[in-house]
Amino acid sequence: MKILVTGSTSMIGRAIVDRLVARGDQVSTIQRSPSGRTDVTETQGSITDIDSVTRAVAGQDAVLHLAAKVDIMGDLDEYVRVNVEGTTNMISAAREAGVTRFVTTSSPSVAHGGESISGAGAEPANPDATRGNYATTKAMAEQLALAASTDAMPIVAIRPHLVIGPGDTQLVERVLDRARSGRMPLIGTGLALVDVTWVDNAADALIAAVDQCHNLGGQAFVVSNGEPRTVHELIGRITQAAGVDWSPRSVPRKVAIFGGSLAEKVWERTGREDEPPMTAFGAEQLSTAHWFDQRDTRAALDWEPRVSLEEGFARLGEHYA
Amino acid sequence: MTSEPLDAARLPPSGLHGLNLSWSRLETVEIDGNARTFHFLDTQTAAEEQFDLTVLCVHGNPSWSYLWRNLLANLPAGVRGIAVDHLDMGFSDRTGTYRRLAQRIDDLTALTNHLELTGPVVTVAHDWGGPISLGWALRHLDQLAGVVLTNTAVHQPQDAAAPRIIRTVRSKSALRRTTVDTTGFITGAFEMSKPRTPPHIRAGFLAPYETPQRRQAIQHFVEDIPLEDDHPTAGTLDDIADGLGHLADTPSLLLWGAKDPVFSDLYLHDLEARLPHADVHRWPNAGHFVTEDAPAAAAIVDWLSTLKTRAAPVAHQSAPTTLLEHVSAPDRRDRLAIAEMTDGQNAITFGDLSERIESTASGLAAHGVQPGDRVAIMVPPGIELAAITYGCWRLGAVAVLVDGALTPPQMTAALKAAYPKYLIGIDRALAASRALRWPGERIALTAASGPHARLINAAADLQTLRANATADHSRPLPNESSEAAVIFTSGSTGPSKGVRYTHGQIASQRDIISEIYSIRPDDSLVAAFAPFALYGPMLGISSVVPDMDVSSPASITARTLAEAVAAIDATMVFASPAALASTIRTQADIAPRHRGALTHVRLLLSAGAPIRTDLFDQAQAVFPNAVAYTPYGMTEILPVSTISLPEIHEAGTGNGVCVGRPVPGVDVQIRPYDDAMSADGQASFGEIAVKAPHARLAYDRLWHTTFLASQPTGWHCTGDVGYLDDSGRLWMAGRLADVVTTTVGPIAPVRLEQAIEALPGVAMAAIVGVGPHDNQQVVAVVQLDTPPKKAGLADLVLIDSVRRAAAATNHGDVVAVLSVPALPVDRRHNSKIDRGRLRKWATDVLTGKPIGTP
């Protein structure tokens, strides 16, 4: 199969490309700067540029769309340009090029506000309920993508929840940075149950979605390890794996949410580009339950997570050894 | 046709929650020369539909047929539901007339005649619909198939004032304002609902009563309550009350919300006296609108299903009770019956005990206690408890026995439910009875005087009653089928339920215990578990009650237990696990002169709660020559099975605890759980159902609970889950309600709990499920040997060990291990964990809510 992978330089992107190459697929990528990989066909360019997108999708059977703006801070316009327009660019160019499978990555946050989720399925994306620019624009993108699914080019949305693994900068490195400098408190009790997805399992699930694409057009699936853990335990496991000393200290939930929204405003006003110590969205995410019903996902994708969290944290330990 | 209605009958508006508009009908009937149009609900929506039975539902004030929407929606095929709006009520005509009870019975009759309702009918009624429906029923005895009454009345009991609320509303100043000018009477009625009726349902009840004109009959209904003897409706109501004697052969069901400030328990008991054959279900926490506050509609539907299979009542032809045959056997007269180690040593021989039983029965009879009357007995285990309980049995009175470990509110709830006519107790119990307004005329043990007597204000004392009575040995014994006791035990969850036993059932229980433990006349018993203080004399053997606090079995020490053993050179010790744990802890204190007596004990029985094997081993070692046994059972059936300590070791590990083979006469069935296999492939895993001659008769005033727990008839569904192994041994894996429903199947808690409790540093563990049904996650809550001050996540090392234990027992993933200062346990045994409460707590904590205490 000839398959184009966007966002291929991210942790999960690398894992996906490795697997596809290993099983004999012809892999192409599109990115702004050369990756140095020799086992893929590279198109240099941005998903926001229709010309480079058109060049990249030419002759492809499938598209696996990972590229997104995931930063914590930034202008809404920039999120819209990358997450919404980037996705619609990919879909229309792929359709023109005769692509027959399209898998887009989404996020469980597209369907939820700040409430606890315990064992829910993949509810419809709802940009009116989401919190923060990332979730809102991903929700818009997913709605557009699923609506654009056709028999000729079925589109499937996969929502991996909190992908972690060696080299993860989104969660693992942030936790470790803060733990090292003594700034990693528990928000509230730290006992909310949260799903995470080990990177290899997320990669397997996305490839499974490409393989099963014809049966699943227009549907969205949440993907996780199916082993919910308390936030307290996750931080404990991550710091333990990296050999970083961490002792839990608690910040009241409301204080953290207030502090987070204050920090966001200050960063916005002053135009700071670095990350604030906390955002309201982050504080909410870390203090409410988020775990999902995986039965439909596993049946539909014909997929099971191969790496348990126990195994995953052991690998993380080896990574930092 | 002479008068036009002020406001014509109409169909209800759409959008009333739960109301199926296709049932709404309007029919015009001629009554006293006037055309009157009724609105009513009718589940017959096509004329060709065939029905075996019609349920005729009659609402009260202020209400309308909307009250019966859930019942109508759940009626089985073949049953037609008709729920009428009275004229001037609901969506029927506003006639502008004044309609009293007699008129309303005529109105209902006119409608059913018009509908040509000639087949079998069950009337169902609420509030003042009760007398109307009964008036109709008494006119239609030939087609009457049953009577269902909910929170209603037919008579004002002589010695009680009318309900304050009704008197207040009836006062001149309030009547029109609350009933007509405002919707106060309707909204006020719903203020009485427990739990609060949701706003969209209240809106449904208010819908037909928008204007004062439409509310006029609410006032008329209140005025028509005959509070005075010369009231125009008094005669009609008296005729109905007197007529209930005609319903002796009519199946009857009384459903009651006990928190109704108008139709209180008083009226339930009045109706019970008039319809002594009635099935009764009383919800202790439901209010006036019992069909809103409790699953009364489901109870009615299930009750209707029993009508077809009801056998005609047969006269009881059973033999006299044998319960007291060993106590009064002539060859035992001089033997010790009971010794008490409390307050010095009291002792009584069987001969003297028999005499005391006779004088108790005669004294109570002389005081007016009748066979069948309920007598609550609140006396600690010992000679008096036996003498009074057996005295009641001798007389045919029903002993109400309430576990001393219940909290005062639980005792209040139990006594209000059982409603004993008399309460015999020690002074402390009588003082509590007076302060907490427990029902039952107080009878003290001994005569008292001075301020103390005023405090307890007893109507009589047993000492005087016995002294003044002439023993009547020719008094007939009650029959085996007569009711002997209502027993309230301390469940670990929910309100305590009264369990009714007949003489025959208790006698069967005595005989089965005697058989399985090979009890001989020369055996003697230490009753360190309160209930057994009553069994020893019944078995005809000498018993001793050690020095202990009834409400706390852990108050027994090795020293007091050994003293008791030595006092009668006991061959058997019956104790609870908590008492045994305390004995093991304190065994160094046993006086050397008592140690020899411990070697004469041949049987050690642990009862009341499951016992851990390591604890049982240590307890057995205290009685070196004893064989240790523990029975499995519950308040409703004890024993179901029994197992010895060597057999426990031989059984090894399985899914839960091995509780041995069913005892002779007991049938055990496993009801498949949810048609699914359990997670560890135990195909026959499911709820344990039991059939036994010594099983309970019924739950008291909980008809529906009894029905649901007795499927099919004669069986008792235990609420425990487990399985029978290949060699016929029964294994108990936990409570049905505590089963965790994971994506890989149901998981019963006990096995994994045992595996976690075997980990170093863990004192006690509980498994609970969080999340939606069928997708629950397994959570372990542990109490460590050195517990933390505040609840929180267990350390990662323990979490790893717990997950390994879960993997080894095939219990899947344990998402979290929470460590708590103390697990919530029952008061009596300190060992039955309230997993329901723990599940709710864990669910809150694991969604990020504040931790608090479980």
Structure description:
The complex is a heterodimer of chains A (321) and B (854). With 321 residues, chain A is of the alpha/beta class. Chain A has helices spanning 11-22, 50-57, 76-96, 132-147, 172-180, 199-211, 213-216, 231-242, 253-270, 280-285, 295-301, 309-320; strands at 2-6, 26-31, 41-44, 62-65, 101-105, 117-120, 155-160, 163-164, 186-187, 193-194, 197-198, 220-223, 229-230, 250-251, 290-292. Chain A has twelve helices and 15 strands. Chain A starts with a strand and ends with a helix. The model of chain A has no long low-confidence stretch (mean pLDDT 90). With 854 residues, chain B is α/β, with parallel strands linked by helices. Chain B has four domains: 1-311, 3-Layer(aba) Sandwich (Rossmann fold); 315-334 and 342-503, Rossmann fold (3-Layer(aba) Sandwich), CATH 3.40.50; 648-738, Luciferase, Domain 3 (Luciferase, domain 3, Roll), CATH 2.30.38.10; 740-854, GMP Synthetase, Chain A, domain 3. In chain B, 32% of the residues lie in helices and 22% in strands. Chain B contains 29 helices and 35 strands. Chain B has a 13-stranded mixed beta sheet, sandwiched between helices. In chain B, strands 1-2-4-3-5-6-7-8 form an eight-stranded mixed beta sheet, sandwiched between helices. An eight-stranded mixed beta sheet of chain B has the order 15-14-13-11-12-16-17-27, sandwiched between helices.
How large is the count of helical segments of chain B? Answer: 29
CATH superfamily assignment of the domain at 2-161 and 198-224 and 293-304 in chain A?
NAD(P)-binding Rossmann-like Domain
Shape of chain B: globular
Q: Which CATH first-tier class of the largest domain in chain B would you pick?
A: Alpha Beta
In percent, how helical is the residue content of chain B? 25-40%
Could you give the count of β-strands of chain A? 15
Distance between the amino and carboxyl termini of chain A: 38 Å
Q: What is the average of the pLDDT values of chain B?
A: 91
Which residues of chain A sit in consecutive blocks of at least 5 with pLDDT less than 50? none
Helix content of chain A: 40-55%
Largest sheet of chain B: 13 strands, mixed
* Alpha carbon gyration radius of chain A: 19 Å
| CATH architecture level-2 label of the domain at 2-161 and 198-224 and 293-304 in chain A | 3-Layer(aba) Sandwich
Major sheet strand order of chain A: 3-2-1-4-5-7-12
